[in-house]
Structure formats: C-alpha cells, structure tokens
Amino acid sequence: MWLIxxxxxxxxxxxxxxxxxxxxxxGGWGAREPFEIQNLTRKPLSFYMIHHESEIAxxxxxxxxxxxxxxxxxxxxxxxxxxxxxxxxxLVGENGKVYEGRGWDRQGAHSTGWNKDSFGICIIGNFNTxxxxxxxxxxxxxxxxxxxxxxxxxxxxxxxxxxQSQSPGLTKGPGNGALDIVRKWPRYCSFENSGEFPRVNxxxxxxxxxxxxxxxxxxxxxxxxxxEPMISFCLLLIYYL
Length: 241
Ligand SMILES: *[C@@H]1O[C@H](CO)[C@@H](O)[C@H](O)[C@H]1NC(C)=O
Prior knowledge:
alpha/beta
C-alpha cells in the first residue's frame, strides 16, 4: 500500500509543470540589488505577457552568454531607463533556461498600464521574423503552467503579447516570429489595444479582460452548439434503431 502510494506520489510529482522549467534564480545570474521593491497586490493575476528584447540583447544559446544578456538588460533598465530593477518577471534564453527577474511576488515594469495584473516574460533576442527554438517555447509553456499550478495566476488566465497590449505600432514585441506561434496556444487572447485610452490607468486592462472573457465564452458556446445537436442526433438514432 505504502509502495503504491509513493509510486503514485512520484508520478504526480514528476508531472508538475514546474519540474519542466530550469529556473535560474537571481543569485544564479549575479543580479544586482533592486533599488526598491513593490509587491504585487492582486494575485492570482489574469494575464501572461510575452516579450522579446531586440534592441539591447542578442539571442543566446549557452549559459555564459545568456547570463551576460540578462545582466545587460538589468543594467540597461536600472541605469538608462531608471527602473528600480530589471523590468521583466522572467527571461528565457535559447538555452531553454528561465531566469528570475522580478519573480512571482513583485510588480514588474514591462508594459505600461498592465503591470498590476500581468506576468511578463522576455524571450532574449530578436524574433521579428525568426521563431524561438523548440527548447525556448517548451520552457515558456511549462513556465506558464507552473505559475498557474503554484497559484500565482488564475486558472482561466489569458496569454497576450506586448504589441497587442499597447497602441498600434508602439512596439513589435515579441516579434511576429514569436507571435505566430503564441497565437496558436490554448489560452491566447486576440485583444488589441486600439490606442484610444491613456496608458497609465486600468481602463485598457479591464477592457482586455472583458474582451478575452467574451472571446473564450463565445468559443465554448460554439462547441456547445455543435456537441448538443450531435448528442440529440445520436440519441434519436439509438431510439429509432
Ligand atoms: C513584499 O513581500 C515580502 C514577502 O512576501 C515581504 O517580506 C516584504 O516586506 C514586502 N515588501 C514590501 C515593500 O511590501
């Protein structure tokens, strides 16, 4: 009995999406101290936002160069953009590792107007045309599921990209190479910021939430419309046979 129980536990544990993520904590990449800490107050959050970093970083494929890129990004955010810390919650390199930026508990600075209700992950490099490699995509998807499993993100979360979150043309992030893949993911929401609202308040994000809820309830109603008549049809068939 005990053996069966431990085996079961082992199977359950092995299936945790968090086990599929090679996290590198701040100590692991030599992060500098944040200038200030602001904790998230609305957890679990509603959105995941996908970014890339194409101006101050290049793609990295091994641990040393990925650490160098993450350090560069932190330097740029703290010393040039005047952020209190690296803006993203997490970053992922094409070595498949996920680097802790602000982590699960602190508010990020990754997309103006969205920072209170979204976790931002940055794919290191430029993905305007090329898509991230398989390792990277797998890491991002496991990270997404991990956040839900650990209760940082709602079960009915939505995935969005940086370019959709801001006025049209403001940013290309995470690049169309990445967007073309992300838009096929199950909780992807197609909301696009029209640019008609100010960036600094909560209007855009509450609009987005309503839009995404409707998009997802519409798609589940569509399947109900299909499935219910099919069931009735089968029952009728059985009845007449
Ligand atoms: C943020 O949260 C941590 C632990 O949850 C706590 O120790 C810390 O004091 C909080 N910091 C601020 C600035 O609220």
